[in-house]
């Protein structure tokens, strides 16, 4: 099978930006899981009693006003449910070159179980300050919270969910001896790109 470079981590960490740059610079195929996330969730939701099915039926109020710990746990559960479908699609990509792929669905424990070697995976996670600042700049956030009675509290819960998500990703990486990059906004983008390229051994 062709080389596949996996970039996991948590939301709003810079994964897409970095992978897009690398794919263009080194002529790699780029596969972004989030572009197909709803498709995967709907496919899994056809089965009974799945977290994907539950999540797709919930209103924004029901999603974001829950305890962030519950939100985080269910997010991990959803990624576990869709992981096999993501991998199946990834392996079907018709591409002459190597592939770089990114998404929160690439949980460290699942990646390790799948047999990905240490030099073909890394996780990028943001500091909480970087995460909140950059989420506030994204136009889709208000649409995601539409229908919430208290949007400020909903956003606060969302940010706490993602912070808890990042801490669990960090823990799983440490347990599985997988590389982690922390994005606090102070490192030059080119330097971050070079660090990823060096880790993967892309040339």
Tally of individual helices? 10
What is the CA–CA distance across the termini? 18 Å
Percent of residues in beta strands: 5-15%
The number of E-state strands comes to 5
Shape label: globular
* Strand order, sheet with most strands: 2-3-1-4-5
Based on secondary structure, the structural category is alpha/beta
Unreliable spans are none
What is the share of helical residues? 55-70%
- Sheet with the most strands, sense and barrel status: 5 strands, parallel
Q: pLDDT average, as an integer? A: 94
Write the H/E string, N to C: EHEHHHHEHEHHHEH
Radius of gyration equals 17 Å
What does this structure look like?
With 203 residues, this protein is of the alpha/beta class. 57% of the residues lie in helices and 12% in strands. It is built from 10 helices and 5 strands, in the order βαβααααβαβαααβα. It has helices spanning 15-25, 37-45, 51-56, 60-64, 68-92, 108-114, 128-136, 140-144, 151-176, 189-200, and strands spanning 4-9, 29-32, 99-102, 121-126, 179-183. α1 (15-25) crosses α10 and α2 (37-45) packs across α5. It is globular and about 50 Å long. The model has no long low-confidence stretch (mean pLDDT 94).
What is the compact description of this entry?
The chain is of the alpha/beta class and 203 residues long. Helix content is 57%, strand content 12%.
Which key terms come to mind for this protein?
203 residues; alpha/beta; five-stranded parallel beta sheet; 10 helices; 5 strands; 12% strand; globular
